[in-house]
Task: structure prediction
Amino acid sequence: MAQRGMSVTVGFRGGMAFESRGPSGHAILLDAAAEAGGADSAARPMEALLAALGSCSGIDVVHILRKMRIPFDGLEIRIDAARRDEHPRIFTGIDLEYVVRGRGLAAKRARVEEAVRLSQEKYCSVAGMLRPAAELRYRVTIEDPDANEEEN
Result:
């Protein structure tokens, strides 16, 4: 199987700030916290890694739900991660909560959960990269105004 490559350039912008640009051509700014000598002008690298995980999986879930013809009004992925105290301060555990909003979703909970499972276990490249280093746990919360609270 052929392997696809990707090239990204990360350039120093002064202080502790960096600008990254990859094949999309879009810039991603990163900086350190003030206590680490940065100007606190952008996201931290590890914060960006969690954002990449959430958006990678979110893109999958949206794509899968659309393919399943399951309409929804909103998707929010809340991520909490634990890190080691010693260096390198890698993530050791990551909890993701997929909050999916929309009418009639409570009755389609199993299909929504299947979309999230497929993203986490099969499609999301960022999750696949992180899984060997950190335990990834996820859950689905459905916010359906037509459902009783006990069903959520």
Remarks:
- The chain has a mean pLDDT of 95.
